[in-house]
Design a protein that fits this description.
Layout (H helix, E strand, L loop, with lengths): L1 E2 L5 H10 L31 H11 L5 H8 L11 E12 L19 H5 L15 E5 L11 E7 L2 E2 L3 E5 L3 E6 L7 E4 L16 E3 L5 E7 L2 E11 L4 E3 L5 E8 L1 E9 L4 E9 L5 E9 L12
Parallel strand pairs: 1-16, 2-16, 4-7, 6-11
Antiparallel strand pairs: 2-13, 3-12, 3-14, 4-5, 7-9, 8-10, 10-11, 14-15
């Protein structure tokens, strides 16, 4: 089944609300010079000593209270759904113009930052056959409560870049930041006050980032301001993000009619389909996200 692309701005706004976020995120993004805690140069301030770092880590890892999570994720107090479920899977491709260059944003990246240009040199990332990476695909519209299957989602930093540009969390999950090479990374949510600046160090434990409310956050690396990712803190668990193969698969969806939305934050393109989920019979979908370079308004979170 191929889902048609939306043409109306109102449809875009409605779809973003369906995803549980607003089109502009939590707060307007400040300029690079205004990013809270951003280092003025490539070198961060001295890392805190081990004892103070551990104290800061514990503060930042505190989850929102259980009643706050309940009010957002399950306001009707439904029991955990244990009925029949099905699967929606498919692929997302780009149509229209190719991604425009944003290479100026990473022009100051060091020569050994091998992932800076592949990740951020274009407005969006495409694989073979124009398959799209970093697309948020979500299934919504069912009346049931499905908790997250795990407590954390991990995002690695390697080659001076996050390993993906879109991240999906359920409110109450932690985002663990891991240094996957020999460089430190300094993650920060723009728009959410931080207890302290934390460093994801090579070989060390992950740095846990905890969103304080359901929202669309911008995750930056204070050492490299081009290194950014959209983090969607949702009030449901049935959402995934595509890799360069453009494939997605959402399992454990309650049977019945649901809406499946595909959203590319880099362009604000969104498509949607209504499907009937049946136990034991995966629903196959093919999404096409359009891009018109002559009409594109670059989101504020782009380099």
């Amino acid at each position: 089944m191929r889902a048609p692309a939306s043409q109306a701005p109102l449809f875009l706004a409605a779809s973003l609300l369906l995803l549980g976020v607003g089109p502009l995120g939590c707060k307007p993004k400040p300029s690079d010079e205004q990013v809270p805690g951003a280092a003025p140069s490539a070198a961060p301030s001295a890392a805190p000593d081990a004892q103070s770092a551990e104290a800061m880590r514990k503060k930042t890892e505190l989850l929102p209270p259980a009643d706050v999570q309940q009010a957002a994720n399950n306001p009707e107090g439904l029991p955990v759904y244990d009925g029949p479920t099905g699967t929606v899977r498919g692929v997302v491709r780009a149509v229209g113009d190719p991604a425009t260059s944003t290479s100026d944003a990473v022009s100051k990246a060091k020569a050994d930052c091998r992932m800076a240009h592949p990740m951020f040199g274009k407005l969006f990332r495409e694989g073979e056959e124009r398959r799209l990476a970093d697309v948020l695909v979500a299934a919504t519209g069912y009346k049931a409560f499905l908790p997250a299957k795990r407590d954390t989602v991990t995002l690695g930093g390697e080659g001076c870049a996050w390993e993906r540009r879109t991240v999906a969390l359920m409110f109450g999950q932690k985002l663990n930041i891991v240094a996957m090479d020999r460089r430190p990374y300094v993650p920060e949510f723009v728009g959410q006050p931080s207890v302290a600046q934390l460093f994801a160090m090579p070989g060390a434990d992950p740095v846990a980032m905890v969103p304080r409310k359901p929202c669309r956050f911008l995750l930056i690396d204070s050492m490299r301001l081009y290194n950014r990712a959209d983090v969607f803190t949702l009030t449901y668990s049935t959402a995934v993000v595509t890799e360069l193969d453009g494939k997605f698969e959402i399992q454990g969806i309650p049977v019945g009619k649901v809406k499946v939305s595909a959203f590319l934050p880099a362009t604000n393109a969104v498509v949607e389909a209504e499907v009937e989920v049946v136990a034991g019979q995966p629903v196959e979908l093919s999404f096409e996200l359009p891009f018109d370079a002559s009409k594109q308004l670059i989101p504020a979170n782009q380099p």
